[in-house]
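Just curious. Invent one:
>
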Amino acid sequence: MQLKRVVVTGMGAITPIGNTLEEYWNALVAGTSGAGLITHFDTNGYKVKFACEVKNFDPLDFLDRKEARKMDPFTHYAMKSADEALNDSGLLLQSPNLDRIGVIWGAGIGGLSTFFNEIVEYAKGDGVPRFSPFFIPKMIIDIAAGYISIKHNLRGPNYGTVSACASSTHALIDAFNIIRLGKADAIVAGGSEACVNEPSVGGFSNMKALSERNDDILTASRPFDLTRDGFVMGEGGASLILEDLDHAKARGAKIYAEIVGGGMTADAYHLTAPHPEGLGARNVMRMAMEEANLKPEDIDYINVHGTSTPLGDIAEIKAITSVFDQHSYNLNISSTKSQTGHLLGGAGAIESVACVMAVKHDIIPPTINHTTHDPAIDARLNLTLNTAQKRVVNAALNNTFGFGGHNASVIFKKYID
């Protein structure tokens, strides 16, 4: 069986540094910090008082009030980014076969705000279960894919992926595999998260996973820096339209890049800590390159998981230097989480968008907030510190790693007919 080639024909994004694809990319290249004091809830009593929130966003700008009330914020972000991506692609303007267009959407936690608010209200009451009839459908992770399909009448494969911070990268890989096997013409793939809320910030904080740099909020997310002390919570989402190349060419679609490989592995090591030698990360990058039929020296850019945690950053760098050997020093490496914070299940989607745009525009977005070299990190590596760099990007690899030891990597390259 001849596998289909799969390309990216549309994208949309809503992030802490921009509410559209263009705004997001321009802010990334400029090295913008999305961090600020938390406005979504009262942080009195919380150790962490800041996050990377989505700003100036109102779901009523694109949703009916009645419909918006039925959705958790993570679904609002999904709907917004999917609308932009579909409009960008022009996919639905040419009478396609909607039975062959699907939606695969990732989230690590989903409707946590909804769950928390419903339980709080129940606890205030008299024990009578006055839960909203929309409680369950607002909360479940697959509902985002369902809502996108309902709005646009997309009747192809439809489900959600859940693998903590690797969730939306798994969504992209699943979409890639379904299309290249000929089971769909196109899929809306991506992920979103809305976890700047009381239980999420409180829970991650008590795990000692979050930065507590309340006195230096804008630079708190500082991957690879010696003084890093944890990640900064982010929110938002992104959508990519993955499409069978022949289908895209037949309708004259613009093509951003080609998706050529994906890897999926497990650390099989620890619930929350990475394998100290980056074993699963090594395996997943090798698997993605093998599937893409690329050698290490063919990769120009890696958008790393790079959360700004003491253990995670070191383990990923060890994995990269092991896999890429001497070519490690020819790579550009950057962590865009230094700008957006960590979107948990939405991270893979917004960072895949960054990779596609790097391939399209030959610009590497920077790792910002770096001031102090960590001697545990090889100083010869080009971590694209503080300023974007121009270079030809023929192939870019995106890493995402989740609690539970879930690893996913995906590769995008320049489209050549």
